[in-house]
């Protein structure tokens, strides 16, 4: 059969199409899938919401993602933190093109690279009181704590050991101050275990017998002087953690905050004989600053009570070092005061029977310090060259009555001492304390006692006098009404009158006096 011109052309087209189809099938058949059953056979893969390619098997793509994540994390010795979500959408197609694996892997890697949020670095968190710092490694932690003890250890004998605290659930380290000299000696003894030859046995027996010899009294040169022990006052918590680099501090900043002296608020307890001026000198703080720190103090004349607590600031480091030292002194010393108790005297009554004189001695003392402050002293050996003479004091044992402000509220209008006369006939030396208050304000007994006067008192107007068991007397003047009688016994805080404006007075107020030995004194010094 002969082919026509068109037949030849058709044959050529047929053969070309067949060849192209064969080539296409050989090259691309791997990336095509044919639907034989009505199910998903092509999947669009999404990482963090971004499409990264099309595959036949989503599990395979998920493995590619995990491999990529491991590679990114392995580039750093620290923890790498990234948010990752893996999702896919399936399709059921007769024909569908899937992407080459390297193409999908590359897209996954790019998405994960951009998902890296931060690198968490291994760090050590140190907490002392309310102060927290994060340092890079154990060496910096040791350096920080060694800077604290180094202020007092001039010989560099002590160091810091960090050990795991097995009593706590968390990965907590415990800081201990160690004697480097003792550590070295212990290691040396362990390396030099005794060999029990005849000579070795003899030396060992001598050592054992020496332990059972009675202790002899040490001479001054027999004592080992200097620091014997060191530690910290505060609990130190050290926790291993992983943190962003931005949260890790420079160790020198931590030293400044934790080791160097900062102004710290402490409580000062008022002692017998203390005044504000004396306290200011004792603690080296201006009196005005002490008044500003304490709301209970109105001015430099504020009355102080024994045991009263005052807030003061002192330069102290956040981390306090406790150390025990054995020291030798040649010193002037004073003997302890000898007190003779008198049962029918009040506690404020004293009499010096014998004046003291200092002595001179040589001592070895075991002393405990917190930072620079000596908190305890024990004399280990003493040799007195000149005996000190003690001070002997008689003192009362009866607790005296207390005195309170005789009214609620009131404005201080005139204090004790010299003044310009507020009205004609008034004194230019004020012998009491005035509080301006409306007429009719209740007036109370400052302390318990017996009413000595109740009625009119010339310039005082209506007045009440009360004698107290400690020999003192209080007076309440310019009253509008007296509510007690002479001879009546009253208790502290009992209402005795109403305030007024009688007698020589420039306005409604209470005039309050206190007399000791028949002489007026500033009553504010004796009020609670």
Cα-based radius of gyration, to the nearest Å:
46 Å
Number of separate strands? 30
Q: Helix content range of the residues, please? A: 10-25%
Question: Quick one: CATH superfamily of one domain?
Answer: Glucose Permease (Domain IIA)
Give the amount of beta strand, in percent: 35-45%
- The low-confidence runs, each spanning 5 or more residues with pLDDT under 50, are 1-10, 20-38
The dominant shape is flat
Average pLDDT level: 84
Helix/strand/pairing category: alpha+beta
Number of helices: 9
The main β sheet shows up as: 10 strands, antiparallel
Mind telling me the CATH class of one domain? Mainly Beta
Report, as a whole number of angstroms, the end-to-end distance: 139 Å
Query: What's the CATH architecture name of one domain?
Result: Distorted Sandwich
Walk me through this protein's architecture:
It is a single chain. This protein has 528 residues and is an alpha+beta fold. It is built from 9 helices and 30 strands. Among the domains are: 32-118, no CATH class; 262-316, Membrane-bound Lytic Murein Transglycosylase D, Chain A; 332-398, Resuscitation-promoting factor rpfb fold; 411-526, Glucose Permease (Domain IIA) (Distorted Sandwich), CATH 2.70.70.10. The strands form 7 sheets. Strands 19, 22, 23, 24, 25, 26, 27, 28, 29 and 30 form a 10-stranded antiparallel sheet that branches. Strands 3, 5, 6, 7, 8 and 10 form a 6-stranded antiparallel sheet that branches. Mean pLDDT is 84; it is low at 1-10 and 20-38.
């Amino acid at each position: 059969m002969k082919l026509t011109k068109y037949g030849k052309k058709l044959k050529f087209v047929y053969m070309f199409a067949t060849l192209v189809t064969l080539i296409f099938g050989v090259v691309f058949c791997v990336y095509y899938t044919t639907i034989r059953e009505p199910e998903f056979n092509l999947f669009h893969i999404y990482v963090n919401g971004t499409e990264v390619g099309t595959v036949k098997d989503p599990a395979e793509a998920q493995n590619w993602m995990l491999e990529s994540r491991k590679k990114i994390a392995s580039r750093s010795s620290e923890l790498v933190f990234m948010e990752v979500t893996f999702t896919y959408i399936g399709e059921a197609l007769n024909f569908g093109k899937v992407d080459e694996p390297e193409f999908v892997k590359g897209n996954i890697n790019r998405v994960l690279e951009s998902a890296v949020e931060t690198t968490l670095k291994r760090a050590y968190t140190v907490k002392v009181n309310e102060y927290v710092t994060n340092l890079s490694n154990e060496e910096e932690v040791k350096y920080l704590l060694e800077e604290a003890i180094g202020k007092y250890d001039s010989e560099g004998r002590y160091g810091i050991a960090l050990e795991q605290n097995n009593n706590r659930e968390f990965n907590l380290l415990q800081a201990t101050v160690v004697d480097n000299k003792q550590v070295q000696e212990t290691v040396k003894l362990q390396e030099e275990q005794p060999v029990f030859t005849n000579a070795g046995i003899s030396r060992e027996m001598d050592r054992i017998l020496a332990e059972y010899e009675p202790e002899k009294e040490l001479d001054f040169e027999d004592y080992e002087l200097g620091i014997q022990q060191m530690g910290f006052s505060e609990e130190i918590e050290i926790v291993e953690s992983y943190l962003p680099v931005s949260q890790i501090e420079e160790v020198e900043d931590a030293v400044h905050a934790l080791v160097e002296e900062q102004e710290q608020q402490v409580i000062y307890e008022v002692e017998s004989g203390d005044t504000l001026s004396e306290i200011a000198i004792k603690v080296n703080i201006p009196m005005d600053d002490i008044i500003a720190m304490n709301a209970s103090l109105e001015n430099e004349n504020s009355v102080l009570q024994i045991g009263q607590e005052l807030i003061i600031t002192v330069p102290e480091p956040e981390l306090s070092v406790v150390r025990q030292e054995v020291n030798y002194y040649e010193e002037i010393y004073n003997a302890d005061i000898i007190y003779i108790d008198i049962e029918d005297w009040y506690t404020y009554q004293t009499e010096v029977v014998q004046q003291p004189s200092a002595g001179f001695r040589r001592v070895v003392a075991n002393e405990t310090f917190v930072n620079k402050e000596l908190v305890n002293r024990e004399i280990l050996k003493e040799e007195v060259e000149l005996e000190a003479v003690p001070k002997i004091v008689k003192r009362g044992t009866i607790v005296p009555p207390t005195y309170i402000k005789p009214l609620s509220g009131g404005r201080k209008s005139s204090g004790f001492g010299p003044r310009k006369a507020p009205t004609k006939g008034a004194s230019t030396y004020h012998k009491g304390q005035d509080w301006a208050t409306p007429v009719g304000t209740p007036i109370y007994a400052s302390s318990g006692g017996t009413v000595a006067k109740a009625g009119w008192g010339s310039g005082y107007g209506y007045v009440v006098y009360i004698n107290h068991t400690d020999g003192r007397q209080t007076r309440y003047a310019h009253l509008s009404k007296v509510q007690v009688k002479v001879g009546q016994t009253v208790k502290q805080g009992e209402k005795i009158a109403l305030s007024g404006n009688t007698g020589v007075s420039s306005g409604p107020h209470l005039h309050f006096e206190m007399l000791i030995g028949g002489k007026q004194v500033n009553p504010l010094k004796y009020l609670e």
